[in-house]
Amino acid sequence: MHPGCESVYSGRGTGFTLIELLVAMFIAAIMFAMGYGAIRQGLTTHESLKEQQAHLLQLQTAMRVMEQDFAQLAPRPVRQAVGSGPAQPALQGSPPGTQPVVALTRAGWANPAGLQRTALQRVAYLLEDNTLKREYWTVLDPTLASTTVKRDLLTHVKSFSLRYMDYSRQWQNEWPQVTGPGAAPGTEAWLRARPLAVEITLDTDDWGKIVRIIETPA
Known about the structure:
The chain is an alpha+beta fold. The chain contains 3 helices and 9 strands.
């Protein structure tokens, strides 16, 4: 046998024994497993952060859109889509548990295409399948043939409710006021009435309960 080969099998000189090779491979396998676990955990954390950021952006966008709508609340009732019934109030806040939660007329409807239409817009908010949605009509006074455009604003919503501050600075769950001082229901003043402020309450899976108060141009 060549003298240089003796150390490979006998462990003498500069060679490695079989046990040493097995131990080295075992340690390398452990380090590989630890590294793979760390990489996988990092990827999972990254995806979770991206999802949370997306939900946060949704929340910020939803709040901004609602703030713009209520801050430009216009005292313009709209007619019923069916028949010649009573007009719908400029702001119609439904009783708790009723859909849509609120419908309103807002000013400042952007018109970048220069279409021949009013700058007023009728919008509504509703909660369907734990998703807060915004709906608007393509015309201000709808008919049966009128179409609407619906947009998902925020997902993972447990509940969505509104309260309205009246002129005595008391919070009401419905609007216009069905009882109390003020114009009689159905009158022009009652249809055009606007609250001093609107309180928005969102209960979400990700961020818990969020309350926002928006002052209106009453």
